From TrEMBL:
Coiled coil: none
Alphabetic keyword roster: DNA-binding, Transcription, Transcription regulation
Limits of the HTH arsR-type domain: 1-95
Listed SUPFAM superfamilies: Winged helix' DNA-binding domain
Name of the protein this chain belongs to: DNA-binding transcriptional ArsR family regulator
Species, as recorded: Methylobacterium fujisawaense
NCBIfam families noted in UniProt: HTH_metalloreg
Alphabetized CDD domains for the sequence: HTH_ARSR (cd00090)
UniProt cross-references to Pfam families, sorted A to Z: HTH_20
Length: 104
């Protein structure tokens, strides 16, 4: 993963509303959520949700799919996993990543 992409994704998730939207979609699983259901769960106006979804889509963390008249939002799990792997660099998988075991 490129450093610039990781920075953009982390910056997008640094906003409380976007983080809430993303976590809600991650918890919804691979089926995702219709925009209306997502709006109810995160309790924000439609225009606000649209703004934040655009940012998450632009950074590749969320995907949308139209099913007839319904717009379904999903967390982009490959992008999320790539970001996690980038942060972890694969070095700490399977061991404690506490301060004592982290190298500087």
């Amino acid at each position: 993963m490129e450093l610039e992409l990781a920075a953009r994704q982390l910056e997008a998730l640094g906003n409380l509303t976007r983080l809430k939207v993303f976590r809600t979609l991650v918890r919804a699983g691979h089926d995702g959520l219709p925009v209306g259901a997502l709006q109810q769960r995160v309790d924000v106006p439609a225009s606000t949700l649209s703004h934040h979804l655009r940012r998450l889509i632009h950074t590749g963390l969320v995907v949308q799919e139209r099913q007839a008249t319904t717009l379904i939002c999903r967390a982009a799990y490959p992008a999320m996993n790539a970001l996690i792997d980038f942060l972890d660099e694969g070095e700490h998988r399977g061991r404690s990543a506490g301060p004592a075991s982290m190298s500087t």
